[in-house]
Write a structure and sequence with these properties.
Largest sheet: 8 strands, antiparallel
Low-confidence stretches: none
Mean pLDDT: 92
Distance between the termini: 53 Å
Structural class: alpha+beta
Radius of gyration: 19 Å
Order of helices and strands: HEEEEEEEEEHEEE
Helix content: 10-25%
Number of helices: 2
Length: 160
């Protein structure tokens, strides 16, 4: 009976760690250059699974083929398009300070309920909503803005 009492603190710690990692925060590795100039593609970041989504947040979304790390541009009910290299959100030009490279024109899309429009910062190589279409809310795992590794970049992303 004493051994159960001795193991109880370790069991509690294990349960708390599993709970935190499953529902609150977990590490995630960036792969590829689709978020360059903001991210180089080899960072390890913290994924926050709780909280509200805000425009231009960097989000992690799951598709059937891959896990995407992209920037959130448009919300359900909004429209977005690119004409002559300029992004129009709800028919108004926005200052797109995150884009690296020119954004190719894409037709206007109006998002349905539960749909979000994501784009990578490196517009020339990013596979995002321009090609794969809108992302559903349940595909978005959370937001990320804190780099754990490399240690030279440790901390909150500067352009957020």
């Amino acid at each position: 009976m004493k051994w159960i009492k001795d193991l109880l603190p370790y069991a509690i710690i294990l349960i708390v760690v599993i709970f935190v990692r499953s529902f609150i925060i977990t590490p995630i590795k960036v792969n590829g250059s689709s978020m360059y100039n903001t991210l180089d593609g080899k960072e390890i970041m913290l994924l926050w699974k709780l909280g509200n989504l805000e425009r231009y947040d960097i989000v992690v979304a799951k598709t059937k083929e891959d896990t995407l790390i992209k920037r959130l541009y448009a919300f359900p009910g909004e429209s977005i398009e690119c004409r002559n290299g300029e992004i129009y959100l709800n028919d108004e030009v926005i200052e797109d300070t995150f884009a690296f490279g020119e954004t190719e024109d894409f037709p206007k899309i109006t998002l349905a309920e539960n749909e979000y429009f994501l784009m990578g910062d490196n517009r020339l190589v990013s596979l995002d909503s321009r090609k794969i279409g809108p992302i559903k809310k349940e595909q978005i795992e959370g937001t990320t803005n804190f780099i754990l590794y490399p240690f030279s970049k440790f901390g909150k992303i500067k352009n957020q």
